[in-house]
Amino acid sequence: MTSWKECIPLPPNFVWLAKLSRLWLLVWLSSHVHSPYPRITRADDVTPRAALVTLAYEYDLEPLLSSMHQLEDAFNSRYNYDWVFFSTAPLSEEFRRLTSNATTATCVYEVVHQGDVPLRHREKKDPISQGQPSQTSQEAASPTRGDTFEPPQTFRQLQRWNNGPFAKEKRLQTYDWFWRIEPGAQFTHDIGFDIFRFMRDHNIAYGSSKANFTPLQRSLLSHQVKRFLEKHPDLLHAEADVAWLLGLSDNGRSHGDSLKSQESNSDATQIVGGNFGND
C-alpha cells in the first residue's frame, strides 16, 4: 500500500534561485540561437537620403507606370524612397493621380524651365550645344522620349541635362543619392537589398547597367573611353569591366556581336549615382 507524504514547500531562497536560473537560461538562449532575420549592427545606420528621379512627358505616362509598378514590386515597396518627376511643362492631374497611386512613397513634381536649366550647363565649344546637327543625335532618336515632340536643339539640351546636371536642381538638394529611371525601363528581377545603403556602405559613387547602343554610339563611346583611360590610367580600378565600353568582348571580337544577345534584355539604362553635384 502506497503511503502519502506531505509536500514540504521549498524555502524562499530556493524559489528565488530557480527563477533567476530560468531567467539566465532564457537570456543565454536568446543570445546564442541563430535568428533568421538580419540584425542591425551599426548604431548610426540611418536611411540614406535618396530619390528615384525621372524626366517625364505627358505621353510617357503608360511606359512610366509600367516601370513604376515593376520597380515598386522589385525594390521600392520595401524601402519607400521618394519619386521625383521632372517635366518641361506642368503635368496633368491624371498623370499626377496615376503616378502617385502607383507607389506609397512621396511623389514630387517639378517643372524644368527649358530656357534656363539645360542652357546653363552647356559647354561653349560643344558643337551639339551650338545647334550644329550631329550624326549621333540623328541616329540615336528614341521613340519613347521627347525627340519626336521637342525641337531638336531643345531635346539635345534636355538629354544633356538628364545625364547629370539634373542633380544640381534645388529640389534635389535634400538628397545625396539618385537613381535615374527612364520611362519604359524593365525591372524583371527582384532586388533583395537596399541599393543605396549598399553603395553608401561600400563607398560606391556611381553605377550603371549595360545600355543598348547603336553601332555609331558604340564607336563614339569607345573612342572617348580609350582617350580618357590613356590620359588617366590611374583612375581605372583593377577589377573594372571596361571591355564592353572599349568595344571588345572577352574573346577580343567586336562587342557588337555579343551585344546583340543583350539587346532583348536591356530596353533602357538605369543609372544610380551618389553625391551627384552636391559637393
TrEMBL record:
Keywords: Glycosyltransferase, Signal, Transferase
Any GO MF annotation of the entry: alpha-1,2-mannosyltransferase activity
Gene Ontology BP annotations: cell wall mannoprotein biosynthetic process; protein N-linked glycosylation; protein O-linked glycosylation
Species whose genome carries this gene: Metarhizium robertsii (strain ARSEF 23 / ATCC MYA-3075)
Any one cellular-component term (Gene Ontology): Golgi apparatus
Family note: Belongs to the glycosyltransferase 15 family.
Taxonomic lineage of the native organism: Eukaryota, Fungi, Dikarya, Ascomycota, Pezizomycotina
Biased composition (Polar residues): 129-141
One Pfam entry name: Glyco_transf_15
Signal sequence segment: 1-35
Protein name: Glycosyltransferase family 15 protein
PANTHER family: ALPHA-1,2 MANNOSYLTRANSFERASE KTR1 (PTHR31121), MANNOSYLTRANSFERASE KTR4-RELATED (PTHR31121:SF7)
UniProt region (Disordered), positions on chain: 123-152, 255-279
Cross-referenced InterPro entries: Glyco_trans_15, Nucleotide-diphossugar_trans
